[in-house]
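Crash report, auto-generated. Payload:
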Amino acid sequence: MPVSAAPSALVALEDGWHARGRPAGAAGTVTGEFVFNTCMSGYQEVLTDPSYTRQVVVMTYPLIGNYGITATDGESPRPQVAGFVMRTCVREPSNWQAVEALPGYLARHGIVAVDGIDTRALTLHLRDRGALRGVLTTAAMPIEEAVERARSIPAMEGLDLASEVMPAAATTEGRGPLTVAALDLGMKQNIVRRLDAQGCRVIRLPGETPAGEVLALEPDGVFVSNGPGDPAAVEGAIRTLAELARRAPGLPTFGICLGHQLLALAHGGETYKLKFGHHGGNHPVQDVRTGKIDITSHNHGFSVREGDGRTVAGAPGLEVTHVNLYDGTIEGFAHRERPLFAVQYHPEAAPGPHDALHHIEAFVAAMREGV
Amino acid sequence: MPRRDDLETILLIGSGPIVIGQACEFDYSGTQACRALADEGYRVVLINSNPATIMTDPSSADQVYLEPLTVETCRRVIEKERPQALLPTLGGQTALNLARELALAGILDEYGVELIGARLEAIERAEDRERFQALMIENEIAVPRGGFARSLDEAERVVAITGFPVILRPAYTMGGAGGGVATTGEELESMVAAGLRASPIGEILIEESVLGWKEFELEVMRDRADNCVVVCSIENLDPMGVHTGDSITVAPQQTLSDREYQAMRDTAFRVIRLVGVETGGSNIQFAVDPGTGRQVVIEMNPRVSRSSALASKATGFPIAKIAARLAVGYTLDEIVNDITGTTPASFEPTLDYIVAKVPRFDFAKFPGADTRLTTAMKSVGESMAIGRTFGEALQKGLRGLETGTTGLFGDQWSELGDDALAERLESPSAIRILLVAEALRRGWPVERLRVGTGIDPWFLSQMARLAAVDVSAGHEGLPADERGWRGLKGAGFSDARLARRWGRTEAAVRHAREGAGVRPAFKVVDTCGGEFEARTPYFYSTYDPGDEAVPLAGPKVLILGGGPNRIGQGIEFDYCCVQAAFALREIGHRVIMVNCNPETVSTDYDISDRLYFEPLTFEDVWAIVEKERPDGILVQYGGQTPLKLARRLDEAGGRIIGTSPDAIDRCEDRDRFGRLLTRLGMRQPSSGIARTAEEARREAARVGYPVLLRPSYVLGGRGMVVVRDEPALERILGSVLQVSEEGPVLIDEFLEGATEFDVDAIADGERVVIGAIMQHIEEAGIHSGDSTCILPAPDLDPGIGTALREQTRRLGLELGVQGLMNVQFAVREGEVYVLEVNPRASRTIPFVSKAVGVPLARLGAQVMVGRTLAELELVEDPDPLAVAVKAPVFPFDRFPGADPVLGPEMLSTGEVIGMAEDAPAAYLKAMLGAGVDLEEAVRSGVLLSLNDRDKTGGAEVAVRLARLGVRLYATRGTRDALQQRGVEAGLVLKVGEGKPDAVDLIRGGQVGLVINTPLGRASPYDEFALRRAALSAGVPCLTTLSAARFAVDAVRTSAGRQDVRSLQAWMGQVVG
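Recovered output after restart:
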């Protein structure tokens, strides 16, 4: 093969699909599960969302980096994705808030990134085959070797990744009168911001903190955060939630994304891996009780299994409250008797629309009622 | 929520004739709405005066009223049809205003008609600027800050809030007198003083200036359950201060962070809820301070708009169709997204491409017009392009304009000095984008251009990268490998531009590129960024490798559309293309449409089997031909645009169907055309051709004055002028017309006083059927597109009629016409002259099809694929259903400074039809449709100012007016001529003769109609002032004697009351 003078980067997937592009971040070789995200803006939030741990994110919108990096749009202190794939990485951003251009930011944080890839072609491939393991490298690696490496990494099923991103110790943010004990499994900063704005003090606890320790904080409510990996593998958190349900059934409890899945599991439910997941900011979710539709922000590869008649399979106490109008999957449930509910998507948005913010308000209202 | 069963009949109002600011996007929206409501089983009644629309096809609605869009007409239609509901939000501002007037007049209440989509309250809240501002402020939604001031002290207090710069508008003054922009305290002081003096009530409105801010639009939909979605965000490349219709725009927005974008989205939803638009689409405009990100709401349109059409095409989300469904009760989740077929419409499209819309201007047709772009729209059309990079989208959009540019870069400004360039960059213009590109090629820094133009640095730095590529491509020559080629093509560089850079031919570049294995791929517009499989075949080309287009199976025809609207080529050709698509699909052909005009019906993805949204250049079209290998290419329906490609497509091996390119050439090539007529023994005006000024003088003298001069290649009569003598010729040669070896000038005998006839016909190679013979009301010399025309022709001698039919038949057979043809004749003193033969769809096809009740464009398309007229059961020349008059509509009000006078160059943007039992009634209806109530106008007094040639004839007109008891005024010479015929008229001074003069008379409201026949372009200035005064006072001005004669006769003999009758009713009964 002729070696081009210009530096190049290689994307190779476990099934042999490959393409070459230009390096757009740090040099190196990374592996991960390739998923595509359909948000047209909000790449900084995507990059810094801990739920993307060990995933290489492919952006379907072809111009990424338009408004640069801002000081305020991070969902965690650093990028969390394993790698980043773009059609075009814009190197001259324009926005009054921009403090840095995207490629420099990626390089500074050691994120291997590529542009010049036909991300639509890659997306269609992932859509048809499902999320695939793959390699992204700026090294001169033969394609066969790259494909081999892609095949050698573990599949997402069964991986407990939350424990990799959850905090080691508790920290407190926000100043409100209400106290939220948040099981942090890779919590997005905007959830904290939103709770803070609603008058909550948020104690971010390691995601597998035992129930007793949670209750010792005498919280007004428990929040279970988003996070990466297979929910079924996060056994400690499931145990905590099951025990909390037994010991403090009246405690307002709210879960988002991974938190939604863990609450389902803690109540006897099941989860399964979606073909290519939901990663974007335009999914319509309907409240089956009112018919109202919210356009919502999504980032998940697993889903809660539905039982008969709008129930969560295996968890008769939980009633399905929200469904995805794209594919009918469960997007939210509530306990039939207790102030416990959860949604699979991201009411805190960031990136994406604010339509579902009312869930956070409802959680806060439930805590106020309890006070 | 389910469909509303309490409604049975729904009335829709169209937008009337095409005018600047309201073009065929409302045919697109109206057609979608008609189809959607019909699919839902409603009885649809439509009123629209524009015959060139698809929506006024008898198949579009149950009852189509081709009637003037007036309150009175609507009342009569409502009385007759008794609709339960009126849907006012799909016919532009015209329909919305009319609905509002009908509501305010109590007519809707009287007949129990419910406004659906937007109620009166919502319309008023959005449309009344003051109420809208107050509503926003009350709800703490940011609008430009400001306040009223009665003293410098108060002014300074307002400025303390707004900061500089501020815009000052003295209250109750006209046209911004005494206002302006203040940027410093000193300026404020002096301007406040001046402003307070100028204002009769001593009050000034001071507003923060948002000029130069970034401009955005959101297209929002809402349903009855209060679900809201943003269909598309749009960002303007040109900052605030240029009308969005005149701005280059991109979708989606590029330079807002997600946080900023979501804040804008939240505000948009609050606005639509506050205004109370219950269902359907609205457009909300924002300005954003580039320095602080502050967002303010500028305005809201509570209806489907031009931007909605753009958003629909840009995303694949059919806003109008869905708006219609929402209006009858559905919610968004109950409507399926056609494109995926599996997901609901309650979502927000996500794009994986960039869309650029580029406006097209026709300033060259309006000498004297101010060409600076402002907040008043001046563009006549637009092209849209889709690409995977900004460069690809923008450069495709620019070459799609067909203004001669091959992309962003050209060499025509290389001579322009830096200072001149800098100066021209300062003010927004039609070509500023190209000047910015030139400056970037010269290496000017982005910051300098940002300061000079206000264009966001994002766009400038993107273009700077393209400029660097353009420059380096020139140095480096042909790329060495595939990667190099993809770099150039992926940035949107056309083969034509690269050929220019490399000094090669376009064909050589194409061969080299294809040799490197580089051809475009075609990707799908799917609304979802690839997340779901798309069923809808809506494609665009790009140079990313992944190709998604599998050629269509079965017999297939490629239809080339008309590209951007322009004066001379507009909606009529889109009508023809869409009819062809319908007709061919009906008989089992697959249809592939190519077009780049987002306003059209043809670019709706469900009109054809496959849509390629692409520029109509040879390169782009040929790539599709190579991909699809169609059995036939239809080039005769899209106006000049596809015709210009016909020969190259033919030579390259594309199969043109219907009339052969050679036959078309025989009519377009002057020499061959002359030989054709000689061979058939037909007459044409004598003519000559000149390549030097000397030749022009000689030929003009030989042909004999007056002569008609024009460049050898014209569209819509561009550059045509009538010259009456040699001094006039000298003036023209020195200014307007450049004669050269490459650009010869044609000189034709001008048939003074002749009557023109237009014949539309259809032929299958064996048989020619005449659709209609139309008579022009204006005499020869006025462009046929600008002439009011009437059928059946009232002054046609039966013998001459037979001759016209006979000559048309012989021409059709000789040329082997297979499809449509149009022949223009002039008749003078019993002598028939052939002016033009166009073996293709003409501008009058939709008008004629409606007037005779025969779908000529559809039948023509079927003939082109081999059906005979006998098979189609069209063997006899049809009779008209009614007397039908087509009247043009002009954009003069948009171009202060341009002379509103008719001539051989086409200036009209649109047309209306009037159908009635007799000619006077049909004429008055058409005029009413064009906005002129002639009966009322004549009653209010008539001012005559005639040139010497027309004084005798004009006196006859005056005699008739006097008999009607009309008050007459005349300028001195005209008055004298009238006096000789015994008609008294009040003397009016010409401008410059003293005061009060004719202009004062018009402004004073003493005149309802002006009849002014000009001396020609070289006329004294006073005539011009007279016509402008009439225009700005809204007083109709007839500039030809024949029109005046016809108008006066119509008023004289009209029965007065005008009946309304639907097209379907006309088709049920045929009148002579």
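Post-recovery validation: DSSP finds ten helices and 22 strands in chain A.
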